[in-house]
Amino acid sequence: MHQSHGVGYAEYAMKHDKRMEIEKSREEEYRKSQLIHADIERKMHR
């Protein structure tokens, strides 16, 4: 957690605003990875 987001788990658990910021970032990273995956799949099946 700390290496990826610069926040320890204790702070993540205690601060709602920080938790929401991290979760938004994680969701964006997930969406980007899904787009990359879909692009690779599309290129492989041409």
Question: Which helices and strands occur, and which strands form pairs?
Answer:
Layout: H1 2-5, H2 9-14, H3 16-44
Key descriptive features of the protein:
0% strand; 46 residues; mainly alpha; 85% helix; elongated
Helix content: over 70%
Q: Total helix count?
A: 3
Order of helices and strands: HHH
What is the mean predicted local confidence, pLDDT? 93
Number of strands: 0
Tell me the domain tally.
1
Quote the distance from N terminus to C terminus: 38 Å
Beta-strand content estimate: under 5%
Q: Could you give a short account of the major beta sheet?
A: none
Global shape: elongated
TL;DR of this structure?
The protein is mainly α. The protein has helices at residues 2-5, 9-14, 16-44. The protein starts with a helix and ends with a helix.
